[in-house]
Amino acid sequence: MASTTTTRTERTARLCAEAALFMRDYVLSRVSHDLRSPLNAIHSWAYVLDRKIDSADSAAQRALAGIRTGVEQQVRLLESLVDTTRAETRKLQIERAPFALDALIDETLDDVRSALADARGVSLAVEGVPTGVTIEAGRERVAQALWLLLAFAAESGAHGSTVTLGVSATPAAAQFELRWQASLDLLSDDTLPHVLEPFARSQAREPQDVGRFPWVLALCQRVAEAHGGRFEAQPLVQGETALFTLNVPSGGV
């Protein structure tokens, strides 16, 4: 029993570390994208001003040169630090192989119950299993994404609540739909047990734009995209039913 507990604790720590890694790179991608647009605008307007300002005005020319230099330094910083760091997860490698979907779901549910759900008094229910389906995909990556979704739901699930995982699967694809009533205030309740890091939980409480999702779930998006599938998340609203959808096509069809 002690060995099993240790193994699960180590696996939980590894899964949390993976989630944090992908969240970091997702944040860096947002930073890179959001900074490049204003930097490009500043650079363009500097050239416009250059044509308007008297070339004999040395002070104005020095100011323009300083603006251009600052923009170029920021672009180099993005390229050398932000983009290079992101390369670690930009192209997610998966090893496709056939596996029984039902076994993966059972194992993942057990891991999430052991890691957090039982301690929080949150029940995990599954619909659509057994499927009897074998799909060809990256088993470990699919398990990571599914674990993260369930763990996140348990993080924001009230004591006595139920997180429902709906499974729809054929040999061509597996689709997971996660529903629960989101109690976002629980994400920052330090009196409760947690597995996800504080920054991730804090950011998840912020208002979400349509089509965006909590940063900590970036791994789920990357796993879906690597398989040619999709990950969708409705904006989280306090006290309302949340819905996440993970679609993973099979490579064997």
What does this structure look like?
The protein has 253 residues and is of the alpha+beta class. It has two domains: 2-90; 96-249, Histidine kinase-like ATPase, C-terminal domain (Heat Shock Protein 90). It contains six helices and seven strands. A five-stranded mixed beta sheet has the order 2-4-5-7-6, with helices on one face. It has a two-stranded antiparallel sheet with strand order 1-3. A hairpin with a 7-residue loop joins strand 6 (230-233) and strand 7. Helix 4 packs antiparallel against helix 6 (218-226). It is elongated. The mean pLDDT is 87.
Low-pLDDT regions: none
Looking at the overall shape, the CATH architecture of the largest domain is 2-Layer Sandwich
Q: Structural class, judged by helices and strands?
A: alpha+beta
Query: Within the CATH hierarchy, at the fold level, what is the topology of the largest domain?
Result: Heat Shock Protein 90
Major pleated sheet: 5 strands, mixed
What name goes with the CATH superfamily of the largest domain? Histidine kinase-like ATPase, C-terminal domain
Q: Considering DSSP H and I runs of 4 or more, what fraction of the residues is helical?
A: 40-55%
Write down the overall geometry. Answer: elongated
E-strand count = 7
Average of pLDDT? 87
- Percent of residues in beta strands? 15-25%
Give me the number of helical elements: 6
Distance between the termini: 40 Å
What spatial order of strands do you see in the largest sheet?
A: 2-4-5-7-6
SSE series: HHEHEEHEEHHEE
* Broad CATH class of the largest domain: Alpha Beta
Taken together, the total number of domains comes to 2
Whole-number radius of gyration?
A: 23 Å
Domain Histidine kinase: 30-252
GO molecular function: phosphorelay sensor kinase activity
Catalytic activity: ATP + protein L-histidine = ADP + protein N-phospho-L-histidine
InterPro entries: HATPase_C_sf, His_kinase_dom, HisK_dim/P_dom, HisK_dim/P_sf
